[in-house]
Amino acid sequence: MSATWFDHAIATVAPRMAARRVMARQAFETLTRGYDGAARGRRTEGWRAPGSSADTEIGVAGALLRDRMRDLVRNNPHAAKAVAVLVNNIIGAGIMPRAASGDDTLDRKVDALFERWTAECDADGQLDFYGLQTLICREMVEAGEVLVRRRLRRANDGLPVPLQLQVMEADFLDATKSGVLGAGRLVQGIEFDPVGKRRAYWLHAEHPGDAWGALQGGLGSHAVPATEIAHVYEKQRTQARGVPWGAPVIRSLRDLDDYEVAELVRKKTEACVTAIVFGDDEAQQGIAPSVVDADGNRVEQFEPGLIAYARGGKDIRFNQPSATGGYGDYKRASLHTISAGFRVPYELLTGDLSQVNYFSICAGLVEFRRMIDAVQWQLFIPMFCAPVWRWFTEAAWAAGQIPWPIVPVEWSPPKFEAVDPQKDAMANLLSIRSGTMTLAEVIAKQGRNPDAVLAEIAATNAKLDALGLVLDSDPRRVTKTGSAQTSDPADDEPDTDDPTADAGNDPAQADQQD
């Protein structure tokens, strides 16, 4: 900012005072500039933006958010579909583990033991491990959080591993337990030690919303060590508890419900009176207005298809409901908002593919699949799968079934279904040939165990060879073009007289030679 003529005049007699005057004016102008979003005035009047912590906000609104979202999922088809889409993509058929200790014998033993345990892992005795994943993920999305409790069993209970999992809704946490506790603190039922590590969870013996539990005095709570609990929720800030994923659009979902009800009532009201028979003006003079039905009964309530008669009626006039537009546009715009709030593509939320083509739907799914990938690897696997695997190996070791309490593991989330399977298969083939991916990675991306798949391929090939069968899909025997190989598969070099044996022209054969 340049000095004014008045500053120059002062500078002639008091240069220091003039300099301080210019610098003070510059500092004042700096304070008046900033972010438009932080400006105060008519445009931001009524905008409340408290600086409270995430735990404080969740403590006030968390229970009501859960209740409202559950009600919407029960009664609103769009909320139910959004939750289902997220769960189906995050879990699918299940996030499968594979022991990766490097000892093939141990890995096969642990994998076989885990496979047997999955069928008996549910404390309620209804779901397997992958069914529990779906239930837990659904609670995480719908209610914002879920608790999984480790339940150790006796050796004589007949389980493959003396361990089961109990899924508990977030309502089991005693949210009234907050404040200072010794050198630590309590935050909505979660106990922290002095360094901020979770030490215990204060749980109700029964669900607070269970009438039977309330009658039996089950509203008290007790501390359960944090090592016995897997708390699964999305951390958007450094909060101790989660919120429903649809929280940003709870009001939008409710408004859409109200709009549809109002539109339906309006249409029904318009359709109530089909026609009214009017009389001439002279016949109706001095007579109180009244409307009767065909039997002469006075009409006080309208219903669809009604033909009403004014007293002395001779002229009939039919009701013509007015046609109003904009319903479809409003609903489509509302569903775009709802899909954005749930982080689900509009096409997956509504099933409406009228505005997309192959390339646009592929581009739209890229970001969604990237988000799902992040949820799987940064949220669900660390918060649920990893603790459960640790509980499983510890219980198996304590039961004397494996030699070590800790066994490294690799997880395989479900594959994404290809929009164009042929293009995806060719992309995988090129990635393997170029060395950017291994065959094991491609198989794992399909949600399967690479070792099991390769063993199955070897067993199938051995059986085909023993029976003397040659399938068109066998690259050891048949070229990519479908003709028989002219060289012995055991030979290191292909027959150069056969141009189809050129590895550079035959990706499938090149894979076999590699």
How would you describe this protein?
The protein has helices at 5-11, 15-32, 54-75, 77-90, 104-118, 129-142, 211-215, 250-272, 281-284, 327-342, 346-350, 358-398, 421-434, 439-445, 450-467, 507-513, and strands at residues 96-99, 145-152, 163-169, 179-181, 184-187, 190-192, 198-204, 221-225, 229-233, 273-279, 291-292, 306-310, 313-318, 409-412. Among the domains are: 55-242, no CATH class; 269-318, no CATH class. 45% of the residues lie in helices and 14% in strands. The longest helix has 41 residues, at 358-398. The strands form four sheets. A five-stranded antiparallel beta sheet has the order 4-5-6-7-8, with no helix packed on it. The chain has a four-stranded mixed beta sheet with strand order 11-12-10-13. The protein has a three-stranded antiparallel beta sheet with strand order 3-2-9, with helices on one face. It is α+β, with helices and mostly antiparallel strands and 514 residues long. It starts with a helix and ends with a helix. It is built from 16 helices and 14 strands.
